[in-house]
Design brief:
Layout (H helix, E strand, L loop, with lengths): L7 E6 L2 H14 L5 E5 L6 H12 L13 E5 L6 E6 L6 H5 L3 H6 L4 E5 L13 E7 L5 E7 L2 H15 L2
Parallel strand pairs: 2-5, 2-6, 4-5
Antiparallel strand pairs: 1-7, 3-4, 6-7
Helix pairs in contact: 1-2, 1-5
This protein binds adenosine-5'-triphosphate and magnesium ion (MG).
The site of adenosine-5'-triphosphate has 19 residues, from helix 1 and helix 2.
């Protein structure tokens, strides 16, 4: 792990389980109203990481790749907050985007939102979002860059770093 720029953390995952574990660590420290945008090619590990976030955050059910829905709402019993798992890969038109209920998901003050393929709604992603960029190094290795432009959100990422790497 190294810090390559002020508000980004870079690390390598050696397995799907490790990617899920990194997501779990992040899920543990996410505050209410957090938005996490997961970027990377097909099969990069976005859903694996999202599944980990769900576990760390305390979602009642395991997150899966949604097949027919673009937004999957997961609850947690402790406070009934909602985790919105949004996957925009199959969205075909701007008209589709308008009917999804994206704005409700992104404006839920008590919930959190995880977005796969966030490029499709770049304008709707707030400046305090957390971006996780995945690069496929080889069959089992993924390079992750976890970044934000917001100094307040950076404090959240420092907590994540401490939890995940002890520094
Ligand atoms: N280090 C790793 N981290 C995550 N996944 C890995 C890793 N190494 C291999 N894999 C494999 O890569 C695939 C990642 O799938 P996953 O559904 O998480 O990707 P995704 O980015 O959500 O893809 P999609 O764009 O299709 O939604 C799985 O088959 C997993 O076993
Ligand atoms: Mg996926």
């Amino acid at each position: 792990m190294s810090i390559l720029e002020p508000l980004a953390i870079e690390c390598t995952s050696h397995s799907e389980a490790q990617t899920q574990r990194l997501g779990m660590r992040l899920g543990t420290v996410l505050p209410r109203h957090a938005i996490v945008a997961l970027q990377g090619p097909l099969g990069a590990g976005k859903t694996s990481f999202a599944r980990g976030i769900g576990i760390g955050w305390g979602a009642d059910q395991i997150l899966r790749s949604p097949t027919f829905t673009f937004i999957q709402a997961h609850h947690r019993s402790q406070d009934n907050a909602v985790l919105y798992h949004i996957d925009l890969y199959r969205v075909e038109s701007d008209a589709d985007l308008l009917t999804l209920g994206l704005e409700d998901a992104l404006s839920d003050e008590d919930g959190i939102a995880i977005i796969e393929w966030p490029e499709r709604i770049a304008d709707l992603i707030p400046p305090d979002a957390i971006y996780v960029r995945f690069a496929i190094t080889d069959e089992t290795h993924r390079q992750l860059k976890i970044a934000t432009q917001d100094t307040h959100t950076w404090q959240v990422l420092l907590k994540f770093r401490k939890l995940a790497f002890g520094v």
